[in-house]
Amino acid sequence: MRHLNGYRKLGRTTSHRKAMLRNMATSLVLHERIDTTLQKAKEVRSFVEKMITLGKRGDLHARRQADSFFFDDAAVKKVFEALAPRFKERTGGYTRILKRGFRVGDSADLATIEFVDFEPKLGADTTAK
């Protein structure tokens, strides 16, 4: 039976894994899209979705919980001021994982994790005037 084995260890020690996932969650919130392996993307998804839910709650305790998780104060600010209002009508499922194929060196499954309403920003305006 697999009781209490509900997460991926990712071949790392506990402290390394926690720091890596917090780092990835911070990067995902700040950049709204990151490329990683499929297993890491599936793990970081639950952390980010919990932080968005805290942002939707919006009280002081939720802000302090998010502040203790993220490595950057800008990520906390973005969750509470930008992402939570964007997802206020959604009851969950704030991220999507897109499979990207296999890495050349070790054939690891690659994936992109992004927010469901993410639209890539294009460079400078290229329309003729």
Can you give a write-up of this model?
It is a single chain. The protein is of the alpha+beta class. It has one domain (15-115): Alpha-Beta Complex (50s Ribosomal Protein L17, Chain: A), CATH 3.90.1030. It is 48% helix and 16% strand. A 3-stranded antiparallel beta sheet has the order 1-3-2. Strand 2 and strand 3 (109-115) form a beta hairpin. Helix 1 crosses helix 4 (73-86) and helix 2 (38-57) packs antiparallel against helix 3. The longest helix is centred in the middle third of the chain and has 20 residues, at 38-57. The radius of gyration is 16 Å and the shape is globular. The termini are far apart. Residues 125-129 have low confidence and may be disordered.
Give the SSE layout.
Elements: H1 14-31, E1 33-37, H2 38-57, H3 60-69, H4 73-86, E2 95-102, E3 109-115
Antiparallel strand pairs: 1-3, 2-3
